[in-house]
Amino acid sequence: MTRILKSLCALSLSLIAATAAFAHGPTPQRADETITIAAPPAKVWEALKNFGDVSWHPGITKVEATGGNDTGATRTITLATGDLVEGLDEYSDEEMTYGYRLSTENLEAFPVSFYSGKITVTASGDGSEVTWISRFYRADTGNFPPEHLNDAAAVKAMTEFMQQGLNGLKAKVEGQG
User: Fold this and answer.
1) 23 vs 19, 30, 38, CA distance in Å?
2) Sign of the dihedral defined by the CA atoms of residues 133, 139, 140, 146, in that order
3) What is the rounded average pLDDT of the residues 61-85?
4) For 119, phi and psi rounded to 5 degrees?
5) How would you write the chain as a 3-class SS string?
6) Nearest-5° angle of CA 32, CA 33, CA 36?
7) Separation of alpha carbons 56 and 166, rounded Å
8) What is the pLDDT of residues 25-56, one digit of tens each?
9) What pLDDT score does 19 carry?
10) How many Å apart are CA 121 and CA 104, to the nearest integer?
11) What global pTM score does this model have?
């Protein structure tokens, strides 16, 4: 009888472990991108500092914003695939940084269910360094997302979006765009 109980316990523990491995849901993802720009930080910040102006990002075709650079300001950015609504969480003109988050998701426009981002300008040698960090969750938060809504799709989309934006900022500030 003891041998049977031990076997049943071992089987139960194995099933619990297997179930837990498949039932964890989405994990937070991150993308960190940095670019060096041949211009002083004040010039780079001037191009970047207005939350409602993302004309430096070639992937954004239109922006509608309210609230300026005050915490709680919002902007609706239009991508080729649709609109996303973002809210401003923190802003520091002195530190040349701001943080924002996705307020209204649009899975057809962008394969994430939530994101937050922070963009910062710092001095680097004779120029500037712009760092853009983002934390996000994939679009499909279920346990078995389709390929176009999984973690890899979210990381790819966010990384490409950030790189495209930073390259656009660099071109604008350095006079090439």
Assistant:
1) 6, 21, 48
2) negative
3) 97
4) -125, 135
5) CHHHHHHHHHHHHHHHHHHHHHCCCCCCEEEEEEEEECCCHHHHHHHHCCCCCCCCCCCCCEEEEECCCCCCCEEEEEECCEEEEEEEEEEECCCCEEEEEEEECCCCCCCEEEEEEEEEEEEECCEEEEEEEEEEEECCCCCCCCHHHCHHHHHHHHHHHHHHHHHHHHHHHCCCC
6) 145
7) 8
8) 678 999 999 999 999 999 999 999 999 999 99
9) 47
10) 27
11) 0.84
Cα torsion 56, 61, 62, 63: sign: negative
147 HSE (CA, 13 A, CB side): 0
Tokens of 83: 């609109």
In the numeric block, the tokens 């316990």 are attached to 9
* 42: phi then psi, degrees, rounded to nearest 5: -60, -40
